[in-house]
Specification:
alpha/beta; 2 domains; 26% helix; 19 strands; Aminopeptidase
């Protein structure tokens, strides 16, 4: 039931309260006061997404005119809603500089020899170098190393019994899907062992000359986009963190190219992954006479590139608590377009026009709830997420930001998979954010699936989690159009997005009330 009274007043700063579920439910009821002016509608969400995911914006790749148009649109909406720029900023644009570096294509190549057969890979189609790879050229035998993980805390080691010194290793993305307990590798959440850099570091520590990685078939992701041949950094010297201390060549190869390597074993990638998850040891899968020659050479000069986060604020009413921020974020960039026939634009409706539409809808809705907010609510759309979470990293590099952010809520891909539970990834750092979401959800009735892990590194919440800031990440899961040209606005489920955002709204009102949990 929606209550008419929605303002909670405080005479002085409240203390920390152990709040039971029933009391929390009553508080939520008293905070909920939706009027026609503050209701979120699926029609407005559709309108936002249709513009942001239109062909005119050409996939919103950072540094392109399409991304600039998206940023101008978001800034215009922030102004119309009545948000204020962040402290110290003249407008809604929060500028930062990226450095972009490409590769010398004639000196970037991959070739596999299996016996007398020669298989040549094409850069941008069959493979791309990882941004952390060193430069150089090496030729060596290839060894299959499972997921490329050594995790003593789970009594798991893909390298046990393998001799990989001065050899290339072929590894699968992600982690084992099954184990003896539900929290094996943290269940459905990914641990640090799934990170590309962690796998490369582990290969280096075992003496490998290089690493080839391919996406595991069971991950549910669509085909890999390997056409991006440029790397980005926040520093002109920030390319290739392993290039000096841990010099290892590393490339991401397509599943199709990996299948050509694996077919000599008589198994498919899918069969091999299922066998690995059922106990197969990498030592049992021999890539006989497979030799890799990988060459990677970057351009010498890094090109500076202007980029932007967009930020606005609804200031809280309490004289002290207004300096504690609830930061609601979603990235606005995507992966652009390419030249060719047919559909050549990565529109990014779900990834992540859906999340940005949520930011705009919640900003408008909560602007009508200013009297209820003791803490400030900050709305951020991040740039350069797709090239390494660089927008959120640039934001937290602003010294005062980490000091003020009390909670972070991230919206990324909230528009698909209507038959599956909404995934809520959280790391409370002594704050029971799961309990708050569950209590708020008593009104929404959404099916939720919680994962408790600050190590999920696929989106901008990770940047805040690393700093110990409690976060919530709302996500409806990957699908066949992920990073594909078919991620279009008409495929989103707007009514369900509205329900998700109604839930997020209740959570923000509760966190913004000034209570400590």
């Amino acid at each position: 039931m929606k209550m008419e009274v929605c303002m909670v007043q405080f005479i002085k700063r409240p203390g920390r309260f152990p709040i039971g579920g029933f009391v929390l439910f009553l508080i939520i009821g008293s905070l909920t006061c939706s009027s026609p002016d503050t209701e979120i509608s699926d029609e407005e969400l559709r309108s936002y997404v249709e513009f942001l995911a239109s062909d005119e914006l050409e996939g919103r790749m950072v540094g392109t005119s399409g991304c600039t148009r998206a940023e101008q649109y978001i800034a215009g909406e922030f102004k119309d809603i009545g948000l204020k720029p962040l402290p110290g900023e003249e407008d809604f644009f929060i500028d930062f500089t990226l450095y972009r570096r490409g590769y010398e294509e004639e000196k970037t190549s991959l070739e596999i020899r299996i016996g007398d057969e020669r298989i040549e890979a094409h850069p941008g189609i069959d493979f791309r170098p990882f941004p952390f790879s060193s430069s150089g050229i090496k030729k060596a035998n290839l060894v299959f190393a499972g997921y490329g993980i050594s995790a003593p805390e789970y009594d798991y080691d893909d390298y046990k019994g393998l001799e990989v010194t001065d050899k290339f290793v072929l590894v699968l993305r992600h982690e084992p899907a099954e184990g003896p307990t539900e929290d094996y590798f943290e269940g459905s959440a990914y641990t640090d062992h799934s990170l590309f850099t962690k796998k490369a570091e582990n290969a280096y520590l075992h003496g490998a000359a290089g690493m080839l990685l391919t996406t595991d078939p069971a991950s549910g992701r669509g085909a890999e986009d390997l056409r991006l041949t440029e790397t980005y950094s926040l520093s002109p010297y920030g390319f290739g963190p392993y290039s000096q201390e841990k010099p290892i060549l590393a490339a991401h190869i397509s599943q199709d190219f990996a299948a050509k390597i694996i077919e000599q074993t008589g198994f498919s990638l899918d069969e091999i992954q299922k066998a690995l998850d059922s106990g197969l040891k990498p030592t049992e899968l021999i890539l006989k006479d497979a030799v890799v020659e990988l060459q990677i050479e970057r351009l010498k000069e890094a090109i500076p590139l202007s980029a932007h986060n967009l930020g606005g604020i609804i200031e809280g009413n309490h004289p002290q608590l207004k300096n504690e921020w609830i930061l609601l974020g979603a990235h606005h960039d995507h992966i652009g377009s390419f030249t060719g026939e047919g559909d050549t634009i990565y529109n990014g409706a779900d990834d992540n026009a859906s999340g940005v539409s949520g930011i705009l809808a919640l900003a408008r809705s909560l602007s009508g709830e200013r009297a209820s907010l003791q803490r400030s609510v900050v709305f951020i759309t991040f740039g350069a997420e797709e090239v390494g979470l660089l927008g959120s990293r640039a934001l937290v590099n602003m010294q005062f930001i980490p000091q003020r952010v009390k909670y972070m809520i991230n919206l990324d891909m909230i528009g698909r998979n209507p038959d599956k539970p909404v995934q809520v990834i959280t790391e409370g750092n002594a704050v029971d954010l799961r309990g708050i979401v569950e209590s708020a959800n008593e009104q929404s009735g959404l099916k939720l699936r919680f994962s408790n892990s600050k190590r999920s590194s696929d989106s901008d919440h990770y940047t805040f989690g690393k700093l110990g800031i409690p976060f919530l990440f709302f996500f409806t899961g990957v699908h066949e159009d992920y990073h594909g040209t078919e991620d279009h606005a008409e495929k989103l489920y707007y009514y369900r997005m509205k329900r998700i955002l109604d839930l997020v709204r209740e959570v923000i009102l509760l966190l913004g009330s000034g209570l400590e949990f």
